[in-house]
Amino acid sequence: MDWMLKDLAESVPGTRHIIVLTADGLRMAQYNTDVDTADRLAAACAGLQSLSAAVGAEFPQGDKRMRLVVIEVGGGFFYLMAAGARAYLAVLADEGVDAGLMGQQMRNLVARIGEHLTSPPRMEERTAG
C-alpha cells in the first residue's frame, strides 16, 4: 500500500502526512510521517468520525455514514475520508493545497484500494441460541 500512498502525496503538491486507520483509531498504514505522529492523528480521527456519525444522525434521509470531513486551520487542511468498511484515509496538507485536486485524488485512491482498506470488527458478534 505504501506506493499508492506515495502516489497520492506526489500527485498533490502540499501533501504532508497520509494515514490509513481503523474506525477505532488504530493506524494501518502511513506515508511521510513518523509512527508517533501517525498514531496521534489516527486516534484523533476516530473521535472525528464518531462526531460525524452523531451529526449524520440528524439528517432525516440517507445512509448517515461519514464520507468526508475537511477541517481548515491556520497553516493547512485536514481531510478524513471513508475508505472501506470501518477504514478511513486521513491527509494533512499545507494551506496552499488544491482542495479540489486533493478530494479527487483521495476518492481515486479509495476507489482503487477500498476493498483492501476494510477493517473487520475486533470482536465477532455472538448470536444467542
From TrEMBL:
Q: Which InterPro entries match?
A: Mycobact_SerProt_Inhib_Rv3364c, Roadblock/LAMTOR2_dom
Q: Could you tell me the superkingdom of the organism this chain comes from?
A: Bacteria
Q: What is this protein called?
A: Roadblock/LAMTOR2 domain-containing protein
Q: Which residues form the Roadblock/LAMTOR2 domain?
A: 2-93
Species of the source: Frankia casuarinae (strain DSM 45818 / CECT 9043 / HFP020203 / CcI3)
